[in-house]
Amino acid sequence: MNTVTLSVHVDEIEKLFREHNRALVAFLQCRLSSLSDAQEVAQEAYLRVLTMDNREEIESLRSYLFKIAGNLAIDRLRKRKVRSDFAAVQASDEPVGESTPVHHAMAVEQVAGIRRALRELPAKASQAFVMHVIEGRDFGTVAQTMNLSERMVRYHVANALAHCRARVDEKEMP
Amino acid sequence: MAKNRQDDMLHIAADWWVRLRAPDASADTMDQWLAWTQEDIRHLETFERVNELASRLDSLDTLSRQSLIKAFAQPPAPRRPWLPLAAAASVAIVMLSGAMYLAWSNREGGVHTRVYNSAIAQNRNITLSDGTQVALGAASTMTTQFSQGQRRVDLKNGEAFFQVVHDHSRPFVVRAGDISVRDIGTAFDVRRTGERVTIAVTQGRVEITDVNQKPGETKSGALEVTAGQLVSYDPGTSSMTVGSITPEQATAWRDDRLEFIDEPLSVVIANLNRYSTRPLHIADGDLGKLSYTGSIRTDAIDSWLDALPQVFPLRVSNEGNQVILSDVERAPRR
């Protein structure tokens, strides 16, 4: 009896994976700003769905999967924050001038391109964008600092993000 | 038209991105988003491209991150107008013009002193007595004082690129106004515009200190800078900003190109005056504060000037032998 339930269950999850894995990873990457973290968390989410025991109470497996994934993403962000706070405490103990290792994820020209793109935008849009995407502050904090509504902050960030993406595309695929 | 459609889709994708980003995004939002991704495969593709850029920006190196935060996420600090510096620099250039290359030597108490300078629009290559190679930019002045225990170079104005022969027993120190740069086995570029100084390290490491720092801050105030980093010293706030720069950008001037990263227009103009046969002047102080990033060919300054009104709200006019940059909002000065 038990084995039968589980195998049906596995089928369902395979179907979920086939139909929604790309969207799930995209959703998680949006939350985590890292493709590899997104893939890891997606794996974990499937595992959770696969091993859950209150299967009968779930209406939509898909909604449940995304909900679990969203929660796992929040956990991961929290852990990341603890780690970076810890790193910050450690760093402040080190003598000034011991420069941190620098790895260039983005070439200097690309950063210059972003800088140019941001200059083309209204000051509020580029400020909200940099505070959220680069500094990693949440929408609420940005809204408070800039004395704007959260809705406006989101609007500015979305606008700046679309603009920068368009500018980067012009460079990368003219 | 297709372009507009693409831009629209990009905006919609970015809008979804901010909505999903909020940790409290509702199940309804998720469902609506999933429905949108299923409408058209390009929807999810566009969303992924937005994701990709956001992820790339999230993994930015510390220096780029700091420079973007400084440029966009902080309220602008009150700045001292740049015009006096630019004016002072132009005066210096007028005095230097006509003088070709000059060097004199003075021997006193075991210290060898030399003065080097260069004419407008002429870079010079110099080998110092210790073998250190110096490329001296146009209209630049530098003195050297070498003794048994120390090699000291004072950059009075302009720009110089140093490839230092390292000698443990005789530190190599470059002074540029308030800033002192000590080599730790290095090649680096120093540009001095009035009291504003930028240092670009292309190889090895240097230690940078503000010589006016308060006592007690002595050693900890030193900033160690490695290859690929650019330090800008702002005399108005006595602050140093760290950014990144490639060796090609740092020494582009040796190939007749001046590179500027986030420099006030007044600094750009003062440096161009080291290469321009006609002096350039900024008539309205506010213009000098505009920030400029880009490269300028020193043998094509006129075409750069022609294009300038397209990016800045200014007018370029000729008055006698001078080129005047004035605010487009103000009435012409004649």
Automatic annotation (TrEMBL), chain B:
Membrane spanning residue stretches? 82-104
Q: Which residues form the FecR N-terminal domain?
A: 13-52
Question: Where does the FecR protein domain lie?
Answer: 116-207
Lineage, top-rank taxon, reads Bacteria
* Keywords of this entry: Membrane, Transmembrane, Transmembrane helix
PANTHER family reported in the protein's UniProt record:
PERIPLASMIC SIGNAL SENSOR AND SIGMA FACTOR ACTIVATOR FECR-RELATED, PROTEIN FECR
This one is known as FecR domain-containing protein
Organism source for this protein?
Dyella flava
